[in-house]
Design brief:
This is D-beta-hydroxybutyrate dehydrogenase. By secondary structure, the chain is α/β, with parallel strands linked by helices. It has helices at about 15-25, 40-50, 65-75, 100-125, 150-170, 185-200, 205-210, 220-230; strands at about 5-10, 30-35, 55, 80-85, 130-135, 175-180, 245. About 45% of the residues are buried.
């Protein structure tokens, strides 16, 4: 793959999987556009990187902000890699899931990746090719109760991935989705707190219950997700497109 610049774009980059992604791509010699709402955390990442990280504070729920960020990125050169990692979840029964909650989940988890792909993929193709990786979830492949909005968004992201993979395959742009199980992130912390509150179990017991949902009986680390994304960005993955990679400790069976 020949592109003008070894540059990666990572959304939701200030913590968790996003932060691990930024650090992994920097280690591989990339310049990384790190996008998130948390400006201070991004600036800290930039300082730690020795100049390899370009911080860009963006609320991906704001279409205008996404379009402006895409324009700024392209002004600096065509990226080789786009990782749509930013995501939010709402955990509530259907009758307690508000329309506002649903719309925000869809904006962050589906609309933002669609917009970034629409704005950046044509430039990637014109430059010789690129890699797009969408961070999904095990909820992209099955139903999970009390997370109807989140499941709907991740199923939609899976469909978007497969459609764009087919559309851009002849232009040397691959599009894949990575579906993690429970990862050591804030989402896991929130889930443990919710389990403790509703069942009376300790957070340690809640952690064990979540870990035991997969065959390995362990929680996935952000760095493990990042390593898979780096592989999918490599020349070794040149013919992998439209694929859904589960990184879930065997949870899907």
């Amino acid at each position: 793959m020949t592109t003008t610049q070894k540059t990666a774009v990572v959304t939701g980059a200030s913590r968790g999987i996003g932060k691990a992604l930024v650090q992994a791509y920097v280690k591989e010699g990339y310049q990384v556009w790190a996008l998130a709402r948390a400006a201070e955390a991004l600036e800290e990442l930039a300082r730690e990187s020795g100049g390899a990280v370009k911080p860009l504070a963006v609320d991906v729920a704001d279409e205008g902000a996404v379009l402006a960020a895409s324009k700024r990125i392209l002004e600096g050169g065509t990226p080789r890699v786009l990782v749509n990692n930013a995501g939010i979840s709402v955990s509530a029964p259907l009758h307690k899931t508000t329309t506002e909650d649903y719309r925000r989940v869809m904006k962050v988890n589906v609309e933002a990746p669609f917009l970034f792909c629409r704005e950046l993929i044509p430039a990637m193709a014109a430059a010789g090719g690129g890699r797009v990786i969408n961070i999904g979830s095990m909820a992209a492949t099955r139903g999970v109760k009390y997370t109807s909005a989140y499941c709907a968004s991740k199923h939609a992201l899976l469909g978007l991935t497969k459609s764009l993979a087919a559309e851009w395959a002849r232009k040397n742009v691959t599009v894949n989705i990575v579906n993690p199980g429970w990862v050591e992130t804030d989402m896991l912390t929130n889930a443990k707190a919710a389990i403790s509150k509703s069942t009376g179990r300790s957070e340690q017991e809640a952690h064990a219950a979540l870990a035991n949902m997969n065959a390995m009986g362990r929680v996935i680390q952000p760095e493990e997700v990042a390593a898979l994304c780096v592989f999918l960005s490599s020349d070794a993955a040149a013919t992998i497109t439209g694929a859904a990679y589960n990184i879930d400790g065997g949870e899907a069976g």
